[in-house]
Amino acid sequence: MLTSKQRGYLSGLAATIQPTVMIGKEGLSEGVVRALEHELNNRELVKLRFIASKEDRRSFSEQLAQEVHAELVRVIGNVAIFYKMAEDAEKRSINLP
């Protein structure tokens, strides 16, 4: 569980990165889950962009976070930010406050 200070810190870091995973008209699919898992394994912080489904963004994001065992940092507009600490200490690039 992230504190509000940690969420703010991660949101600041996420401001400089581009979304790498997209959710389209089909909504959540196995492909989206796999893509998010892959990105979280390569980087600790990932932005996801919603192309459609305006009303379900928060619930989709919470469900995705549970499925990939990550923290949902924030949902702002059509972008969700996810964080998952690297299991290998040598691969960790983010040090939380």
UniProtKB/TrEMBL annotation:
Gene3D superfamilies reported in the protein's UniProt record: YhbY-like
SUPFAM superfamilies in the record: YhbY-like (SSF75471)
Classification via SMART domains: CRS1_YhbY
Top-rank lineage group of the source organism: Bacteria
Residues annotated as domain CRM: 1-95
One Pfam family here: CRS1_YhbY
The keyword Magnesium is assigned to this record: no
This protein's UniProt keywords: RNA-binding
Molecular-function annotations in GO: RNA binding
Transmembrane feature ranges: none
Keyword RNA-binding among record annotations: yes
Protein name in the entry: CRM domain-containing protein
Originating species: Gracilinema caldarium (strain ATCC 51460 / DSM 7334 / H1)
Lineage: Bacteria, Pseudomonadati, Spirochaetota, Spirochaetia, Spirochaetales
